[in-house]
Amino acid sequence: MTKHYKNLKLVVEDSLLESIYQSSCVHYPKEYGGFLIGKYSNDFKTLYIEQSITAEIFKSSRVEFTRESNYLKSEFEKLFINKGLYYVGEWHTHPDGEAWYSSTDLSAMISIAREKNVKIDNPILLILSITSDSLKDFNFFILNNERLELYE
Fold first, then answer.
1. Is 109 helix (H, G, I), strand (E, B) or coil?
2. CA of 9: how far to CAs of 14, 64, 150, in Å?
3. Beta-carbon neighbour count of residue 16 at 10 Å?
4. For the chain, is the Cβ count within 10 Å smaller at the N or the C terminus?
5. How far apart, in whole angstroms, are the C-alpha atoms of residue 27 and residue 142?
6. 3-state DSSP assignment of residue 39
7. In this predicted model, what pLDDT tens digit does every residue of 84-139 receive, in sequence order?
8. Distance (Å, rounded) from C-alpha 42 to C-alpha 24?
9. Where do the structural domains in the chain lie, given as residue ranges?
10. Is 140 left (phi over 0), alpha (psi -120 to 50) or beta?
């Protein structure tokens, strides 16, 4: 699957989206999420999201998901050293809701971009709308000038 935002192309395998959805099902009807891992092309015009890491330390409810990431520092370092992959963003579900971001989601993404240890100006956000038995919809967003903008 390929999506576009201005002059930046986003490439994600359907199998990765399916894997993310499947990992979310066991947490339904609560929100669940994780990290998007990938790399940019040499010209920085294409972002390849190649894998996901699910959160292991988190708090969730039907309308909120908060994850911890500090415990993954060594795993992120290994991915970069061994595969040239790095953290590019976040994903989480909206059970029985829309695949659209909330003001809380926007604030979280702004905080991530401002975090000195993250070193990413334009993190990606994937929101999946799930029901008890299906992936209803999903959207990718990119943080640009403290706004989340839709990949189409």
1. helix
2. 16, 29, 12
3. 18
4. C
5. 25
6. strand
7. 999 999 999 999 999 999 999 999 999 999 988 778 889 999 999 999 999 999 99
8. 32
9. 2-150
10. beta
